[in-house]
Amino acid sequence: MREAESQWVDEELGVISVVRNARACNIIMRASADGVRVTCSPRATLSEIRDALDAFRAKLSSRQSLIRDTATLIDRQFSISTGIVSVGFASDEECRSVKLHQGEVCVRRGEFWSKIYIDPGTDLTKYQGWLKKFFVEELRLHAKNYLPRRTDEIAAEYGFKHTGVKIQSSRTCWGSCSARNSINLSLYLMAVPSHLIDYVIKHELCHTVHHDHSDKFWKLMDDVTDGRTKDLRRELKEHRMPLG
Predict the structure, then answer these.
(1) Do residues 100 and 118 make contact, with C-beta atoms less than 8 angstroms apart?
(2) Could you tell me where the DSSP H helices lie in 124-184?
(3) Please, what's the b/e burial string for 195-221 (b: 16 or more CB within 10 A of its CB; e: otherwise)?
(4) Domain 138-237 indexed as CATH 3.30.1490.110
(5) pLDDT tens for residues 156-170?
């Protein structure tokens, strides 16, 4: 069980967010572009947390610099397009056809596509935060439309039983399966090819049978992937989550 977060601002590291989790044994720190998220047990003292931050301050700061240097810049050529979903910008000609004022934005959607219409003269560098949120929310919308249905299809094909599918914004893992066989899938799955989406879904469905990574689990994975588990797993590792 998690307790409510506490926060403060560090002059060098930015916003420090602390989450206390009864299942946490150690102090875990994860850097972001503008802060650090700390996960620890309810018994960890504020002094211990600050000491841990100071001990790893140089590494955390270096990690933040790397994140900022490699952060995605969203320009008019940026898009997320797979065999399932397409999210991107309308062409300049399309934008002019809807007679938008400078800075005005229009969004059009289909079942598995979304387009942003924005005046061609707009400086997108001023809207990076909004644009990233837009792409994330569009991926979430399409994920909610596609992933639960696809999970049900695969479960029916192979005879798996699950208790539901939740779409989350996890950037640390593509999916997970709870002890009650509830499947959690990251919305960022919508940015990878469809056969890798199926691989992740099959992985989590296999966990409804074996809640570990035992030999029996991997044998079941090979059964449902026609022996391609290692290849698919290797291919998935080549994909990074977008909009970092």
Answers:
(1) yes
(2) 128-158
(3) ebbbbbbbbbbbbbebeeeeeebeebb
(4) no
(5) 999 999 999 999 988
Neighbours of 12 (CB within 10 A): 10
- pTM of structure: 0.72
Which amino acid makes up residue 101?
Answer: H
**What own/partner pairs with CB < 8 Å and gap ≥ 24 does 164-169 have?**
167/140, 167/143, 169/136, 169/140
Percent of the chain with pLDDT over 70: 95
Distance CA 197, CA 195 (A): 5
CATH 3.30.2010.10 in the chain, residue ranges: 138-237
* Conformational region of residue 106, where left means phi above 0, alpha means psi within -120 to 50, and beta covers everything else: beta
Tell me: the pLDDT tens digits for 218-229?
A: 999 999 999 999
- Which residues are registered as beta bridge partners of 217? none
